[in-house]
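Most newcomers find our protein records easier to grasp once they have seen one. A record pairs a protein's sequence with a compact description of its fold. An example says more than a description, so a record of this kind follows:
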Amino acid sequence: MAKYFKIALSILMISAIIISCKKDSPVDEDGLLITFRQECFVSNFELLGADFVSVRSKTAVIDTVAQTIDVEVLFGTDLKNVYPQFTLATDCKLDPKITGKTDLSNLANPKVYTVVSGNRKIRKAYKLNIKYQ
């Protein structure tokens, strides 16, 4: 009887370990939750200077069909030290990640940011076009 009890207890413990190791919610390489959302777009864009004040001269124009962001900045803005800020659809993420100051001074070659959907299956590249006022 004790032999069967030990076997049953062993099976129960192994089952508990396997179940506890199973992830309930999948996460990506950044530790962000992967969801079922397929929406993938930029809804707002802000560009801050080194003093964390907006350098835009007017609201950015975001075209979700052409996947472009057109922003006009104040004359004399140092585009080597700016902080771009994106507002994305729910559960989306941005690639490349913005981790600090960004150099956007090469106006001839606009920077491209990719928005990745919540389910990580849809990727849309947005071209950031900047011009001076």
About this structure: Strands lie at 42-48, 61-63, 68-73, 83-88, 93-95, 111-116, 123-132.
